Each structure stands twice: as C-alpha cells, then as structure tokens.
C-alpha cells in the first residue's frame, strides 16, 4: 500500500479522502467551500477540496465521477478521468459539469468525486516508417461491430 502525504486546510473543514468500504477502489473527495456553490444546468465549475498531495513518483491520482451523482443528478467530472501528476503540489480541484436538467447545489463537505491511486508507466516513443499488421488494422470507431 502506497502512502500519499496530504497537506490540508483542516481549520476550514477540508476532509481527508476515505475509502467507504473494504473493497472500494476509489476514495471520496469532498468539496471545501466558504458558501454553497450552485452549478446551473449545462454549466461547469471548478470545485476546491482544500487538499494538497505529495504523490509518490511512479504513481498518479485519477479523479473520477461518483456514480450516484451522475445517475441521480447528471453531475459528472468534466475531464474524466482527471490526472494529478506526482510532481503537482497545488490544491486539488475537481471540474464538475451539470448535465442534468436542474441546477445542482454543492455544500462544503459534500462528496463530489472519487480518486484512484494508480501506477504510471512512461514509454519511449520511436519514429518508424511502418507498423505491424493486425486483424483489425486501421478500422476505427465501431469497426468491430456491436453484436457477437
């Protein structure tokens, strides 16, 4: 298990990420707001958490939507999954978009997203004149069909 050092604005109510069940892959990220934030239908907002991470080199934190917010309210993470690199030291903020039909209100302490800690593999990129052949080849979107 990796350790992520966290600096937080605890005096203002920042919430340390937490896994809600033993089998949870994602830990919840909560909003830290001075006052309620309303995201109108069709609009987006950057929501602060009051958290600052020191992610170990070779890892990233992915920010993903909470399924309940998406299913019940149409609220999701705009750049999903958002990536927080190991060398970033600024405040963690979540870009939420309201795809629902009604305005959505966020209060300080509300669970707004989840974070996944994941290993990172960096590649070497090499220029070539040809690529190996595959059965799919250059077939793009939908080229493999939708039925068995």
From TrEMBL:
Its cofactor is Mg(2+). One of its GO terms (molecular function) is magnesium ion binding. It holds the Pfam family dUTPase. It catalyses: dUTP + H2O = dUMP + diphosphate + H(+). InterPro entries: dUTPase, dUTPase-like, dUTPase-like_sf, dUTPase_trimeric. SUPFAM superfamilies: dUTPase-like (SSF51283). It comes from the Bacteria. Pathway: Pyrimidine metabolism; dUMP biosynthesis; dUMP from dCTP (dUTP route): step 2/2. GO terms for biological process: dUMP biosynthetic process; dUTP catabolic process. Residues 14-145 form the dUTPase-like domain. The keyword Glycoprotein does not apply. Substrate binds at residues 66-68, 79, 83-85. Keywords: Hydrolase, Magnesium, Metal-binding, Nucleotide metabolism. Belongs to the dUTPase family. This enzyme is involved in nucleotide metabolism: it produces dUMP, the immediate precursor of thymidine nucleotides and it decreases the intracellular concentration of dUTP so that uracil cannot be incorporated into DNA. This is Deoxyuridine 5'-triphosphate nucleotidohydrolase. It comes from Treponema bryantii. The lineage of its organism: Bacteria, Pseudomonadati, Spirochaetota, Spirochaetia, Spirochaetales.
């Amino acid at each position: 298990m990796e350790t992520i050092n966290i600096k937080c604005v605890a005096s203002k109510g920042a919430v340390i990420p937490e896994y809600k069940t033993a089998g949870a892959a994602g830990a919840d990220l909560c909003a830290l707001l001075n006052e309620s934030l309303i995201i109108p239908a069709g609009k987006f907002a950057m929501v602060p958490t009051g958290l600052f991470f020191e992610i170990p080199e070779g890892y990233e934190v992915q920010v993903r939507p909470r399924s309940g917010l998406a299913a019940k309210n149409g609220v999701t993470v705009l750049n999903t999954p958002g990536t927080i690199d190991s060398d970033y030291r600024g405040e963690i903020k979540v870009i939420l978009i309201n795809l629902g039909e009604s305005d959505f209100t966020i209060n300080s302490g509300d669970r707004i997203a989840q974070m996944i800690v994941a290993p990172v593999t960096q590649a070497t990129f090499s220029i070539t004149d040809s690529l190996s052949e595959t059965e799919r080849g250059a077939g793009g979107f939908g080229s493999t069909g939708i039925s068995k």
